[in-house]
Each structure stands twice: as structure tokens, then as C-alpha cells.
Amino acid sequence: MAIIECQPDLDIAAAATLHRQLLDALQTQQPLEIDGRAVRKIHTAVLQLFLSLMNEAKARAVPVHWRNPSPALLEGARLLGLAEPLGLEPDAGSR
Asked: What range(s) does the STAS domain occupy (predicted)?
């Protein structure tokens, strides 16, 4: 399993590095776990990056799971209506 540990501030500057990490992890074809416990601030572009990852992972049949998403991560996703598509809602995987 590949594990990505998110930085506290996921802003535009962090997006390029995170993008590379996510692509590298996805290419292993192994299940991916994203640890979001440290996230204090998240930019819309990073949430869009996560959504793109989820779509690509689904197309490749690579499971993606969140570990300990922080309140800031959850709130940012909910405000943009992305919590369910990102798999951050408790029942998102059961639909």
C-alpha cells in the first residue's frame, strides 16, 4: 500500500509536489491511503487535484482510502460539495 502524508498547508505552492506524489503512487497500481490528519488549510486547487486522483484511481481500479481526515480537510470538501465524490462522507463508498 502506498501512503501519502499530507502537509499542514495544502496551498497552490504545495499542489505541484503533491500532484507528483499522487501520480507516482497511482502508477504503482497498489491501494493508496491518504493521511489527512495534519491538514490545517486546503486550497480549492488541491481539492480538485484529489478529485482528479479519485477519478483516475477508479478508472484504474486502484482503491483509495483516507486516514484521519482533519476537520479543515472535511470542511473544505463539504463547502465545495466534494466530500462525497472524494470519499470523505461516511456512506460515500456504499452507494
From this structure: 1-95
